[in-house]
């Protein structure tokens, strides 16, 4: 008689930062096959087209080379927020995290206050108040989740005396603002809620911290060693631990108080996580929040190190087609034109050669240009800027990249 040796297959989906705390490394090595999911990498245009159709939006009039379009969570928040607001088109230029998340909150409020939904006063944004209440509790307890019953009580107190299926708390879960999950606390599994998207969480925690602790008259004092904000950046290891929050600070501080993080915490200027998050912020902050101090920091610290130098070039290519950004293709062109051939090739052409095939901004720009999809919706100025950038790709000795850029 044959024995049944059938087995059960298990698939786990885990965010990379959470991997070590979810599955032991020895279990992964012995029993599991580890596969990295690249999001929408390579199919960005198709993904955005699918989302736009689902949410009844027009395709944007700028090239799709922003890295966040690789992230399903970001695309969902962006498109749902626009649809809830009654918008039909993705905004031109830099779509900063501050705006996306703020619009998302406002869009849920705009939907829920309506008499056909929860029927509360339009001029009181209960959704924003609920987020602030939950974030305040998270910050107070230094925990990125809140017990389910406690969160339910706090949120429903903003709109009391409602049945569960018509409560504010249930509506916010249904809208995807909060996600239910189970958390291990003192060897006990507890039902709680969290924000479904980590950058969303970092953004609102940072907003709360700035509102509470920043004194615009003396922001440097707010980041002194003995202050709550100063403790977040007290040394380089701490900055690595708080990297998500520091990225949000790098976006929000210039937008709100016209100061770079390194201006209010100058002791951190040379830290690698500070430099990296600064460069990332250039893509996602409001272009109007670029100042002379921004360029000074780039010249003094960013281009001094190869890692952030190359990261900065990748960021420049990402924002190259944005007519509203001061660091677009015209900025790059002006700088490259000043250089002698040998000096330029020593870093620019080598950078292009090394980046080709790495799925960064170099590949995204060329792939977008090669795409057979209709581009009639792309603005003329964005196309001119893309053309300028692609022309500079012709300097590389990498014949594969040069040939693709030429064609």
Mean pLDDT over all positions: 87
What is the makeup of the main sheet?
3 strands, antiparallel
Topology, number of strands: 3
* Low-pLDDT segments: none
Distance between the termini: 66 Å
Radius of gyration: 23 Å
Q: Can you write the helix and strand succession as a string?
A: HHHHHHEHHEEHHHHHHHHHHHHHH
Large-scale geometry: globular
Concise account of the structure shown:
This protein has about 400 residues and is mostly helical.
Sequence-ordered SSE layout with sheet pairings:
Layout lengths: L18 H4 L2 H7 L12 H11 L17 H13 L12 H16 L13 H16 L4 E2 H9 L11 H7 L4 E7 L2 E7 L3 H16 L5 H4 L5 H5 L3 H6 L1 H15 L3 H4 L7 H13 L7 H9 L5 H13 L10 H9 L3 H15 L5 H10 L9 H13 L6 H8 L1
Antiparallel strand pairs: 1-3, 2-3
Helix pairs in contact: 4-5, 6-9, 9-13, 13-15, 15-17, 18-21
What can you tell me about this protein's structure?
A three-stranded antiparallel sheet has the order 1-3-2. It is globular, with a radius of gyration of 23 Å. It has helices at 19-22, 25-31, 44-54, 72-84, 97-112, 126-141, 148-156, 168-174, 198-213, 219-222, 228-232, 236-241, 243-257, 261-264, 272-284, 292-300, 306-318, 329-337, 341-355, 361-370, 380-392, 399-406; strands spanning 146-147, 179-185, 188-194. The protein is mainly α and 407 residues long. The model has no long low-confidence stretch (mean pLDDT 87). Helix 6 (126-141) crosses helix 9 (198-213), helix 15 (272-284) packs parallel to helix 17 (306-318) and helix 18 (329-337) runs parallel beside helix 21. A hairpin with a 2-residue loop joins strand 2 and strand 3. The chain is built from 22 helices and three strands.
């Amino acid at each position: 008689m044959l024995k049944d040796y059938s087995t059960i297959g298990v698939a786990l989906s885990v965010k990379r930062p959470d991997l070590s705390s979810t599955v032991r490394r020895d279990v992964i090595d012995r029993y599991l096959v580890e596969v990295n999911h690249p999001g929408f990498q390579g199919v960005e245009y198709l993904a955005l087209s699918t989302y736009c159709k689902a949410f009844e939006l027009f395709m944007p009039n700028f090239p799709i080379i922003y890295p966040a379009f690789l992230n399903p969570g970001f695309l969902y928040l962006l498109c749902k927020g626009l649809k809830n607001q009654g918008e039909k088109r993705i905004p031109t230029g830099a779509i900063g995290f501050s705006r996306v998340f703020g619009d998302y909150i406002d869009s849920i409020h705009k939907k829920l206050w309506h008499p056909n939904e929860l029927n509360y006063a339009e001029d009181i944004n209960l959704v924003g108040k609920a987020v602030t209440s939950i974030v305040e509790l998270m910050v107070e307890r230094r925990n990125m989740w809140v017990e389910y019953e406690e969160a339910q009580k706090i949120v429903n107190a903003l709109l009391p005396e409602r049945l569960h299926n018509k409560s504010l708390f249930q509506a916010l879960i249904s809208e995807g603002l909060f996600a239910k999950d189970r958390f291990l606390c003192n060897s006990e599994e507890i039902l709680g809620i969290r924000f479904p998207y980590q950058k969303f969480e970092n953004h609102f925690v940072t907003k709360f911290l700035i509102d509470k602790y920043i004194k615009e008259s003396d922001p440097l004092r707010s980041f002194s060693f003995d202050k709550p904000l100063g403790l977040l950046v007290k040394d380089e290891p701490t900055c690595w631990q708080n990297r998500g929050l520091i990225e949000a600070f790098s976006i929000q501080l210039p937008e709100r108080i016209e100061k770079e993080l390194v201006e209010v915490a100058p002791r951190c200027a040379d830290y690698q996580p500070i430099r990296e998050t600064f460069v990332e912020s250039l893509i996602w902050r409001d272009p109007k929040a670029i100042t002379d101090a921004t360029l000074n920091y780039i010249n003094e610290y960013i281009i001094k190190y190869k890692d952030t130098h190359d990261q900065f070039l990748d960021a420049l290519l990402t924002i190259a087609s944005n007519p509203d950004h001061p660091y677009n293709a015209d900025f790059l062109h002006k700088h490259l034109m000043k250089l002698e051939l040998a000096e330029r090739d020593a870093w620019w052409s080598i950078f292009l050669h090394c980046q080709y095939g790495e799925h960064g901004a170099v590949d995204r720009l060329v792939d977008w240009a090669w795409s057979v999809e209709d581009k009639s919706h792309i603005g003329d100025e964005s196309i001119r800027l893309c053309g300028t950038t692609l022309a500079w790709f012709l300097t590389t000795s990498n014949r594969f990249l040069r040939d693709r850029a030429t064609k």
